[in-house]
Amino acid sequence: MKSQTVNRVAINRERLDVALRTLIAVALGYAFSAWLSSAIANFIGADGREHEVLVRMLFFCVYCTFILFTFIFDTTKKASIVMTALSALALCLYSISTGL
Amino acid sequence: MKGNVRKSMTWLHTWSSVLVGWLLFAIFFTGTLSFFRTEITYWMQPEQHAAVPSEKALEHGLRYLAINAPNASEWQLSLPDARSNTLDLSWRDANAGNERRRGPRVMLNPSTGEEIKVRETAGGNFLYRFHFELYGIGRWIVGVVSMMMFVAIISGVIMHRKIFADFFMFRPKKKLLSWIDGHAISAVLALPFHIMITFSGLILLGATLLPFNSEERVRHRPQGTEVRQNAQQQNLASPDINALLALPISSMIAHAERTWQVPVESLSITHPGKANAQFTLSGNNRTQLSAGRGGSSALVFNAQGEVINERPASVAANASQATYNYLDMLHQARFADTLTRWLLFFAGILGTIMVGTGSVLWVVKRAKQQLGEFGFELVRGSK
């Protein structure tokens, strides 16, 4: 009985772990990729159509890398801290690139 | 996840693909068939089969347009080519405003000049549109699924310990192992294609998936009233058929074909039947893939058959645009001759097999332990 309860707790914890990582990967990853790819395009000095296609191409590479790394960390806590810090850094870079 | 990188990647590879495997299979399969959408449409419209290319195609086309679209501001004639035996005509009616981009379209038999009334079917275009927008359900879904596919491919490469050794291994009649080997062979054999087609598909859907990034392109388009006024200002007398046929269009075509060394594919006539008529000839004379869709040059003639303008092929303005154009052209096989098209088709079939075997593999692997469980039955049912 006790082992069944422990097992269920472990399963629920794993499910929560997966849900949190998925949320970080999808939502935070989207924001991170948007900021970083826009910042790179801004730093390069791309404008108009060039900016648009450059961001498009960079975005999906960055997004894929972000998702992979979110699932590589051994704990969700570590993943969330590192990915949030990286996103904050990307936001800073984007702000600097736009001159805010 | 807990465990090493390879275990994490295996988990991610499994779940990012198995959840949408059934949809991915449909998208990949219809996309692969779309490499031959013109041929599929031809097959599904048997009325087209009577069409035979003829030297009189141009004459028949001009005669039809002079009778049926005398007041049009522009005529377009697409001549028969390697992929289509029919003569396709369209025109822009000056009085109809700007509601339609290309105006009415008809298909003629180039040898007889008779209009071909094809049956009501989208043919290969159904598969083509389904492939990227699921017929109205949305490009967003296709975009999300493509992103999951991209993650699955990259994680699949990382998780493989011996990617090339696995490629040369096939163990038949060993249920699970056979599925694993089939999955690995189909994935590795066309791996560059899988990466290219998924990534290029994503960037083609970029306008939908990245709304923050859409460049505002404001174009001034004349409203219907403006067009009508312009049309009224012109003297719209019906073009004389004999005068039209007496024009040196054949020598224009010969000149263009001598210049490009490729057949002329289309002819556009602005202000047909007027003294200021212009004849724009274009063909498949693309020299650079990086130039994208506007990579063909054109020759513009006046009614006397003299070249008045040589419209050069567009050139990609920068490296980003050139890369984007390459991927766009590759994804849609716009450059491909028959052999290349078949190669792309077989690579697409391998991709479809990869998705299919991956999904079956998941079910076979778990059949013993999880039979009857909700999650397992849900995924198994969706396959």
From TrEMBL, chain A:
It comes from the Bacteria. This is Iron transporter. Keywords: Membrane, Transmembrane, Transmembrane helix. The chain crosses the membrane at residues 20-41, 53-73, 80-97.
